[in-house]
Amino acid sequence: MCVLIIKPKGVKMPDARKLQMAFKANPHGCGCASSTKFFKSLSFDTFMRKLAKVGDDENCMIHFRFATHGSIKRANCHPFKQGDVYFAHNGIIDIDRTDDRTDSETAFDEMVYPAILRYGWNSEEVKTVASNLCQYGSKIALMQNGELLMFGNFIQDADGCYYSNHRFMYCANSFAQ
After folding, report:
1. Which residues form the Glutamine amidotransferase type-2 domain (predicted)?
2. Alpha-carbon span 174 to 154, nearest angstrom
3. Which CATH superfamily is domain 3-175 in?
4. How far is CA 37 from CA 6, 63, 85, 122, in A?
5. Prediction pTM value
6. Number of neighbouring beta carbons within 10 Å of residue 156
7. Is the Cα torsion angle 165, 114, 103, 21 positive or negative in sign?
8. What is the mean pLDDT of residues 93-115?
């Protein structure tokens, strides 16, 4: 299962070891969105170089992918972008997909983003759509103009960041060497 990490404004990035554990447990790509950066990569080293340019003074969503729907390629990494809105998801959404898209991208393109266009950012309608997608344990993050919305039960860690799950940390012993 993927991991979605939210670094709030004013909080430092998770340490490199924690990010490396997240990537090793979810090795099918990674991505980031903040008010100043947006990128996706299949390479952890490239990801870390770009992530180092995100400031502590901005909100940031970080995603490490474990492919469940859609092939392993950069385009299927989160976050997804439409206009000035970014979307990242952890979990599985029961939705019909077309082509080689992920369930997350399909839900964003067909449900969440149209609701934002119709009703506005941070509207009750958008909150309802996103919350309904989280009813089976999924977590969702949306960002527009650096403003962050989170849906689902995230875990706030001692580092001040929010995590969709800690499964990647339980794999740490498997990666030690």
Report:
1. 1-177
2. 24
3. Aminohydrolase, N-terminal nucleophile (Ntn) domain (3.60.20.10)
4. 14, 14, 13, 22
5. 0.93
6. 11
7. negative
8. 88
